[in-house]
Amino acid sequence: MPAVTTDNPLTLPRVAAPADARQRPVLGVATAPQGFEGEGFPVRRAFAGIDHRHLDPFIMMDQMGEVEYAPGEAKGTPWHPHRGFETVTYLIDGTFVHRDSHGGGGVINGGDTQWMTAGSGLLHIEAPPEELVVTGGLFHGLQLWVNLPREHKMMPPRYQDIGGGQVKLLTSADGGALLRLIAGDLDGHRGPGSTHTPITMIHASVNPGAQLTLPWRSDFNALAYGLAGRGTAGTGGRPFGTGQSVVFGAGDSLTLTADAAQDAHTPNLEVVLLGGLPIREPMFHYGPFVMNSHAELAQAFDDFQAGRLGSIPADDAPRTAPSTAPKTGE
């Protein structure tokens, strides 16, 4: 069960698309391949195989877990660099601790979102807290990478810590879906996340058999990712479920419908909805660097090797340091 919920969605503000809104068709459904990241925690690469023209301004997204760790199994990442984009880490269950080479950091708990603008660059580490390592427990979340436009790529790094209690809670027209608006605008309501690139990010829980139709900015792209459960996308009823991404075409609204019967693991269809204003600039992505040219990528790599992105704090130096080559992904 997601950490942020409500006893009665019918008390929440309701969101509905205008009756004459143009429905977005489903262009395709992609299944995320599974693998491991960091020190060995399981991930699904949500956007693998999707053409970047449908993703812009998003770069990639990993579903981390869902995994029930036994004692001693919980894992994180080694120290690694970032430059030129933002990471959005949304935890559904569990706890993560993050630190950086500039002294920033904090704890992300279930329901929280940690928004890191890497900008000009830093070194970063994410790890499970000691109590999760000792006792084991459930861990489940997402990490989304959002591109920065050229004018903001070298801005100073910054953080936004968005507690679960800050998320704007909404419901669908009939109360059959709970919407957690993390960032952006939806039907006149605004989420707490502040973004350099205009985006909308929503975690929706759709009750079995319920249909969710939302207004959607026509100048945004539109993506849906199945965290858990089964359902269909679009008015044509394109099936999708856990670990699958839906790419929508042009229009003013989008529709999702939860299957009437869900499996025992989840009572609802759990979906992350994403939309953003395309940047439409050249993008060159290599490992943890996302820039506008090969020359800028080479400079980022040189700056990393020369220590200009920061140094690992002395009290953490024995832990695995970044390799001399950037990693491919988070």
Automatic annotation (TrEMBL):
**Where's the Pirin C-terminal domain?**
202-309
Pfam families given in the database record: Pirin (PF02678), Pirin_C (PF05726)
Region feature Disordered, mapped onto this chain: 309-330
> From what superkingdom does this record's organism come?
Bacteria
UniProt xrefs under CDD domains: cupin_pirin_C, cupin_pirin_N
Record field: compositional bias (Polar residues): 321-330
What InterPro entries does the record point to? Answer: Pirin (IPR012093), Pirin_C_dom (IPR008778), Pirin_N_dom (IPR003829), RmlC-like_jellyroll (IPR014710), RmlC_Cupin_sf (IPR011051)
Q: For the Pirin N-terminal domain, which residue ranges apply?
A: 41-146
UniProt cross-references to Gene3D superfamilies, sorted A to Z: Jelly Rolls
Similarity field:
Belongs to the pirin family.
Indicate what this protein is called per its UniProt record. Pirin family protein
Q: What organism does the record attribute this protein to?
A: Streptantibioticus silvisoli
